[in-house]
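Proteins fold reproducibly. Next comes an illustrative record:
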Amino acid sequence: MKKLKKFLHLVIIFIFNVNYVYGTCPEIKRGLKTEKFTMIEFGAKFCTSCFKMEKVIKRIEEELDSLVNVIFVDVDLCSDIAEEFDIKLVPSQIFLDKNGKIFFKHTDVIEFKQIEEIIKHEKDL
């Protein structure tokens, strides 16, 4: 019985991961074609600092939705995208302007207030 539970647990994780890959990796390309700024959050499931970013991302989506799209990339599932942006540590954030050009890069947990200032500063340029 324990082996069956363990097997089912692994199957559920695998199904979740497959859906997550298909939902995340192509989304990055769609996020670059936008009238808003884009923040790409690079993280991983087993990164404790990345969990701290979840509240920040939720707040961004609630309060800055009209200014910025947020895309989460799991570096374990989309390592090619992490390599493309030269991500070495997580959490890391890349901020793109409306043309898809990087204007700010940060590694570690970043507070909502700092993100708000970054976006508003770039908007005013």
User: Anything to note?
Assistant: The domain at 2-124 is CATH 3.40.30.10 (Glutaredoxin).
